[in-house]
Amino acid sequence: MPKVRFVKENLEIEVPEGSTILEASRQAGAPEGDRCGGVCACSTCHVYVLDGFDRTSEIEDEEFDILDKAFDVRMTSRLGCQAKITGDITVEITDESFLAFCDEHPEQKEAALALRARAKAAT
Ligand code: FES
Questions:
Q1: Among the four 11, 15, 17, 23, which has the fewest Cβ within 10 Å?
Q2: Would you say the CB of residue 34 lies under 6 angstroms from ligand 1?
Q3: Is residue 123's pLDDT more than 90?
Q4: Which of the listed residues 20, 25, 39 should we mutate to test ligand 1's pocket, taking the one with most ligand atoms within 8 A of CB?
Q5: Is the C-alpha dihedral spanning 49, 111, 15, 18 positive or negative?
Q6: Are 20 and 38 spatial neighbours (Cβ–Cβ below 8 Å)?
Q7: Residue whose CA is closest, atom 4 of ligand 1?
């Protein structure tokens, strides 16, 4: 099974091939926004695939259209709810997505901040 590493949280998880990055972040407990529920309509699941971009599914036109709404879009940008995993990848959840998660889940905000702080201290 492919391994997904979330660098800003220092979390790693194995998921079945074909899982989305958003599904992986949920399973790993990594704070990734998903305001529209994963239907390619909000851009709050914006991530950077730092390693293994070619081990994700191709970007469809619909994803490009929604990525246009995200901040600081880069060559490595993907929508976590659309990118399917085909091999080992390393992912950075954007600050935009992290903040969206904290807005969506205020009860988990402190834990999410602590997770990132611990990961940063460990590097
Ligand atoms: Fe809304 Fe991915 S969760 S576009």
A1: 17
A2: yes
A3: no
A4: 39
A5: negative
A6: yes
A7: 40
**Tokens 């091939």 label which residue?**
17
Residue 40 to residues 7, 59, 62, 69, 86, Cα–Cα distance (Å): 24, 12, 7, 11, 20
Give tens-digit pLDDT for 14-31: 999 999 999 999 999 999
CB 35 within 8 A of CB 100: yes
What does the pLDDT look like over 33-66, one tens digit per residue? 999 999 999 999 999 999 999 999 999 999 999 9
SS3 at position 105 = coil
Which residue's entry shows tokens 């879009």?
73
